[in-house]
Specification:
The chain is α+β, with helices and mostly antiparallel strands and 186 residues long. Helix content is 34%, strand content 31%. It contains 6 helices and 4 strands; from the N terminus they run ααααααββββ. Strands 1-2-3-4 form a 4-stranded antiparallel beta sheet, with helices on one face. A hairpin with a 5-residue loop joins strand 1 and strand 2. The radius of gyration is 20 Å and the shape is globular. The protein starts with a helix and ends with a strand.
Length: 186
């Protein structure tokens, strides 16, 4: 039954590769097909794929760092982002909140948009080390500031849910760099 399912899912794979996948299903990587991005990490364990891992990190950054000058929208995005991470992300949220960052965004009618440039994951060791490079645009009435944002974290496999469809959890989240690149008038 499972062989038939994999034959349908991956019709281009040969029977010998299918047998190897089924026999070595508990391994993290299989050498003949290790660069195929759609095979699950820890094949057969019900965990996500490398592209899902990268999407999980990308989505967290979009929710956590893209902010509009609306208190309820900020709270909604942050609470959805915190479902994807451990307490290390909550600690940053608490620090930003205590410093008044979110209040200044609302009071100053500031939009903050993040664009993730790259998500680099090391899938050879578990938990998976991740480094993310992104750009933040802080849009004010008079100017636009572009900032570089670099973060690191580790990804853990976890169960999938409606709130966490990719089946990963971010731990040890840390902002390594968050500095201004340029400011231009509007």
């Amino acid at each position: 039954m499972s062989v038939l399912r994999y034959s349908i899912s991956f019709p281009c794979l040969r029977w010998t590769v299918l047998r190897q996948i089924l026999r070595q299903g508990e391994h993290q990587r299989l050498s003949p097909i290790q660069h195929i991005d759609f095979l699950p990490l820890g094949f057969g364990k019900g965990v996500g794929t490398p592209s899902e891992a990268k999407e999980h990190v990308r989505r967290f950054h979009e929710l956590f760092f893209t902010l509009s000058p609306d208190k309820s929208a900020i709270e909604g995005n942050i609470s959805r982002a915190l479902l994807l991470a451990d307490k290390s992300a909550y600690n940053y949220y608490r620090d930003f909140s205590e410093k008044g960052s979110y209040n200044r965004i609302v009071a100053g009618n500031i939009n903050q948009v993040v664009q993730v440039d790259s998500v680099l994951c090391d899938f050879d060791r578990y938990p998976y080390a991740v480094r993310t490079h992104a750009r933040q645009m802080i849009i004010r009435a008079t100017n636009v500031t572009e900032r570089s944002l670099v973060t690191v974290c580790r990804l853990l496999n976890t169960s999938r849910s409606d709130d966490n469809p990719n089946g990963f959890n971010i731990e040890g989240f840390e902002i390594v760099e968050n500095k201004d690149i340029s400011t231009r008038k509007r």
